[in-house]
Amino acid sequence: MSIDIEVLMELYRDMSLVRAFELGLEREFKRGAVPGMLHIGVGQEATQAALAAHLRADDAFFPDHRCHGLNALAEEKHGGEGRRIMAELFGRATGVSGGKGGSLHSANPAVGNFGDNAIEGSFMVTVLGVALAWKMRGEPRVACCVIGDGTVGRGEFHESLNMAKIWQLPVLYACVNNGYAISTPVAASHASGDIVDMARGYGFPCKQVDGNDIEVAYAAVQEAVAHIRAGNGPYFLEFKTWRWQGIFSGEFRPAEEVRYWKEDHDPLKLARQALSARGVTGADLDRVDAEVKADVESWIQFSKDSPMPEAAKAVADVYVGWEVKPR
Amino acid sequence: MTTAEAVRVRTYVQALNEALDLAMTRDPSVFLLGEDIGRMGGDFGVTRGLFDKFGAERVRDTPLSEAAIVGICVGAAMVGMRPVAEIMFADFLGECYDQLVNNAAKMHYMFDGQFKAPLVVRTAAGGGFGGGPHHSQSVEGWFMNVPGLVVVAPATPADAKGLLAASIENDNPVLFLEHKGLYRVKGDVPEGYYTTPLCRAAVRREGRDVTIVTAMKLVHDALAAAEVLAQEGIEAEVIDLRTVRPYDAETLVASVRKTGRAVVATEAPKMGGLAAELSATLSEECFGYLKAPVVRVSGLDTPIPFSVPLEKLILPGKDDILAGVRQTMQ
């Protein structure tokens, strides 16, 4: 079963946007324009495009560290502004969190973005509360958390899957297994290199898919979301993928592995091949790439032109209803 | 404070139970979760009868997953619920420290006011009954350094009810400390629903000579000490903090400026805790008024042993407060 060519073209555009966003951001980071630390999602575009395609504005997702692209897609699809995700990364007042959250705490509930949490795994139990509230109120929404393979080491992973099962909560677990937690390979940290094997013990539907094949990833999310929305409880998806960014000090992975993922199994190249097999020309796709790149460049410029947060924001919103004294 | 009708005598546990019952009756977004709080009614009986009245959906037994219990509160609060969790012993808060400190307390700030976390985590704190190292601690010090969190610590049944209702109504995350030594204490409790304001201390006894600032069980020890001191002609003012963070500095400072002497009494270890914080503020704000240095009366800097006589050596009580006051009177 293949998906409509219009849908596939849109998914390609979304993936291309994610890549352009991340590469533009990385460039600015290296120039010193973006403060803090940065986790780049290049190589993982297909999972983000697939999730963005099926999550609605009134669902909730908790993005992981490499989900800037998913955050931007949610903005663009649900009436927000992708450039406000970029501005947040620049720490500007126009950012979705007013510059106070940064890469790891960019949220906008109006588009379903409930924010990342820099403590890996922490939101795996928060997502249960969102899902429980919706279930108690009879609202057929999906609460999704995007996690990496490293998060499986946290106790919250197991508390979460267990309770999602016993209470049949509408949770979508999207595990992006890119093979490494910073420098530590999955095989060295987990009982199984296939995360799905560990999830299966909790007794609800679990599936492992190729996270770099957009058609496969799209269909998998579609099936999982339909299952959850119909009131059938949680669903666990493991996306096998690979991140292009090495670690802070550079590339550490075997040359053949790097070559395979970048040359043979790049999600954008795979999508281009699928589209050209269906008659789309390379020129058409290049045009899409150029358009999203121009968008991203305008977002970067918007971010640079945006003001820093006002000083009063430093002490604002510590408590609801009570003020904290400025220095 | 919303006024209520008749006043009856109730235990601290019954007062807490009434607050939960009334809050759940008036607000459908309030629900309870915790270990053995359903049919069993909780380890100390605080939720007794609520399972039968409100059902398993709103009085929810959980697995031994403290991080998830508090995480669920945060998530549910983000989408408009008002969850109230029970963590069986305050010592277990280490298991959900991340959720309270990094998630609940920072939620409103780090997302620029887009989310709120109106949740209450109730827990049984304090020692004095042979509970041993992991069932006896006073943990308020663990949370003093956490902006965004509210820490409430009632000393009387009437306050237990009014402060719990106020905590549930409040839009901030509240850690609600219930001292185990107070659960069976009886006192006048107004009937019906009422709230007691957060962040306001109560002057439990007025006096001109020395101010004793304290909370929870030690409020009662301080009042007993004040009786003894009155026999000696020393009039002690006893202040019950009621909310530990953010605390009512105004009331404390006004009292100490009046009396010129201060004893700060807390059950927790001395170093770096609530007593240290209060003592520092009183020294900063009242230095010119002080006739003697501020004295801290605290637990010793040790874990809490199981042995009852050893525990007695470690936890402060009436006699330690008396000694502290006498030190300031010299």
**Which percent band covers the strand fraction of chain A?**
5-15%
> What is the CATH top level name of chain A?
Alpha Beta
Task: Please give the share of residues in helix of chain B.
Answer: 25-40%
Query: How many β strands of chain B by DSSP?
Result: 14
From the helix content, strand content and strand pairing of chain A, which structural class follows?
alpha/beta
CATH structural fold name of the largest domain in chain B: Rossmann fold
Q: Please tell me the overall pLDDT of chain A.
A: 96
Biggest sheet record of chain A: 5 strands, parallel
Largest interface: A-B, 47 and 42 residues
Report on the structure:
The complex is a heterodimer of chains A (327) and B (330). Chain A is of the alpha/beta class. Chain A has a single domain, classed as Rossmann fold (3-Layer(aba) Sandwich), CATH 3.40.50. In chain A, 46% of the residues lie in helices and 9% in strands. Chain A has a 5-stranded parallel sheet with strand order 1-2-3-7-6, sandwiched between helices. Chain A has a two-stranded antiparallel ribbon with strand order 4-5. In chain B, helix 1 runs parallel beside helix 5, helix 3 packs parallel to helix 4 and helix 7 crosses helix 8. Helices cover 36% and strands 22% of the residues of chain B. The longest helix of chain B is centred in the N-terminal third of the chain and has 15 residues. A 7-stranded mixed sheet of chain B has the order 3-2-4-5-7-6-12, sandwiched between helices. A 5-stranded mixed sheet of chain B has the order 9-11-10-13-14, with helices on both faces. A two-stranded antiparallel sheet of chain B has the order 1-8. Chain B contains 10 helices and 14 strands. Chain B is globular, with a radius of gyration of 19 Å. Chain B folds into 2 domains: 182 residues, Rossmann fold, CATH 3.40.50.970; 128 residues, Rossmann fold (3-Layer(aba) Sandwich). In chain B, helix 8 links the parallel strand 13 and strand 14. Chains A and B meet through helix 5 and helix 6 of A and helix 3 and helix 4 of B.
